[in-house]
């Protein structure tokens, strides 16, 4: 059996909208087994795949492999390599502790896991850059998927592709991940990703800095949080963010950390001000908390598209989290909070002994 582990991630870290990602120590886990000695059951299970799920969102996540984001992504990878379905008797058990729609990269982790799943069951042996190409065909901003795939604190960029490749990359998601009714295969080949869609660069991270995630009890879909953003920005606001982003990539590696520099480097004018309409307590939190007012705090921002708040800190986690939790409480919103660390390894895959939990037969290792 294969065990695939993919970390959650916090994108943007203030000014690095669609650029910066930080992989964090909360992991989506997949246990995958294949029994190619058993016959395929084409009438009941045309995609040859059974999905089980535990963890966050167990009541809501669609376990039909034709609809589930993770298995659809794997199927996309397989179909680009002329494999129309999973190998016979594939079973995938998903264990997901990452809150959904909270700005902690649950969809990015699911997409990375799906690409790794397609790669392993299809025995495709794709390179790391090619895995990233497949991820970027599904989740089109690179910050979460690059952090989840490669690990650590990363900066990402997309290449300027030639017009044909650009057109392939921009086909609607419904064509990349067609949703066949009842799993019936349309026989169409999906768009093959262009080569080298995106790249990443890893930055150092000071060992003293922990990431405090304060997770409100409501969802904001990333798609919705992108719709509230303007189509263009003033030169002044772009320069404001670029100046801070240039600082951010190095000040978070300084040991000991410099709180005032980090606080300044995490200011943003291109996404957070527009997202406050979706996250009631955001303006009060950002305007009232700083290293001067709260010992141990280094900087504070919206995690990804929100609503989670990410506070970088060296100590005093309970007190800092308590203040943020109270701001949400004042708006009638409850929260949970966690202290996380950078997930340096990114996504990993290894063979482990045993059966997929709850599966009915004994399965051989792939
Ligand atoms: N493990 C998973 N399996 C299947 N679908 C998932 C999984 N994780 C996330 N998703 C899908 O991604 C959606 C959340 O994505 P998104 O709005 O981008 O928020 P975020 O990535 O910030 O959590 C979920 O509602 C669900 O549809
Ligand atoms: N750069 C993206 C990041 C979205 O992250 P998520 O964790 O909320 O999916 C954005 O800010 O829209």
UniProtKB/TrEMBL annotation:
Residues 266-316 form the GHMP kinase C-terminal domain. Keywords: Amino-acid biosynthesis, ATP-binding, Kinase, Lipid biosynthesis, Lipid metabolism, Nucleotide-binding, Steroid biosynthesis, Steroid metabolism, Sterol biosynthesis, Sterol metabolism, Threonine biosynthesis, Transferase. It catalyses: L-homoserine + ATP = O-phospho-L-homoserine + ADP + H(+). PROSITE patterns: GHMP_KINASES_ATP. Its EC number is 2.7.1.39. It is an enzyme of class 2 (transferase). GO terms for molecular function: ATP binding; homoserine kinase activity. It holds the Pfam family GHMP_kinases_C. Pathway: Amino-acid biosynthesis; L-threonine biosynthesis; L-threonine from L-aspartate: step 4/5. One of its GO terms (biological process) is threonine biosynthetic process. Belongs to the GHMP kinase family. Homoserine kinase subfamily. HAMAP family: Homoser_kinase. Commits homoserine to the threonine biosynthesis pathway by catalyzing its O-phosphorylation. This is Homoserine kinase. It comes from Knufia peltigerae. The gene is THR1.
């Amino acid at each position: 059996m294969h065990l695939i582990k993919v970390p959650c991630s916090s994108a943007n870290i203030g000014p690095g909208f669609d650029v910066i990602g930080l992989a964090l120590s909360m992991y989506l886990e997949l246990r995958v087994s294949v029994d190619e000695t058993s016959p395929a059951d084409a009438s009941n299970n045309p995609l040859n795949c059974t999905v089980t799920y535990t963890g966050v969102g167990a009541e809501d996540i669609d376990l039909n492999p034709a609809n589930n984001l993770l298995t659809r992504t794997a199927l996309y990878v397989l179909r680009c390599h002329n494999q129309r379905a999973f190998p016979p008797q594939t079973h995938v058990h998903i264990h997901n502790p990452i809150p959904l729609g909270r700005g902690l990269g649950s969809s990015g982790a699911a997409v990375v896991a799906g690409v790794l799943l397609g790669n392993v069951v299809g025995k495709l042996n794709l390179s790391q850059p090619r895995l990233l190409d497949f991820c970027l065909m599904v989740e089109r901003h690179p910050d979460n998927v690059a952090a989840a795939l490669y690990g650590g604190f990363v900066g990402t960029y997309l290449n300027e592709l030639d017009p044909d490749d650009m057109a392939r990359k921009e086909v609607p998601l419904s064509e990349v991940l067609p949703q066949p009714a009842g799993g019936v295969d349309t026989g169409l080949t999906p768009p093959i990703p262009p080569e080298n869609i995106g790249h990443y660069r890893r930055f150092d991270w000071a060992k003293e800095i922990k990431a405090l995630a304060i997770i409100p009890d409501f969802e904001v879909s990333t798609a919705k949080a992108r719709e509230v953003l303007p189509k263009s920005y003033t030169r002044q606001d772009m320069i404001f963010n670029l100046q801070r982003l240039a600082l951010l990539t190095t000040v978070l590696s300084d040991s000991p950390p410099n709180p005032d520099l980090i606080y300044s480097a995490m200011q943003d004018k291109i996404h957070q001000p527009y997202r406050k309409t979706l996250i009631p307590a955001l303006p009060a939190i950002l305007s009232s908390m700083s290293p001067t007012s709260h010992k141990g705090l280094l900087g504070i921002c919206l995690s990804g598209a929100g609503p989670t708040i990410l506070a970088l800190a060296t100590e005093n986690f309970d007190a800092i989290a308590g203040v943020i939790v109270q701001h949400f409480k004042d708006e009638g919103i409850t929260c949970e909070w966690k202290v996380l660390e950078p997930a340096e390894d990114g996504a990993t895959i290894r063979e482990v002994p045993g059966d997929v939990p709850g599966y009915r037969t004994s399965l051989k290792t792939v």
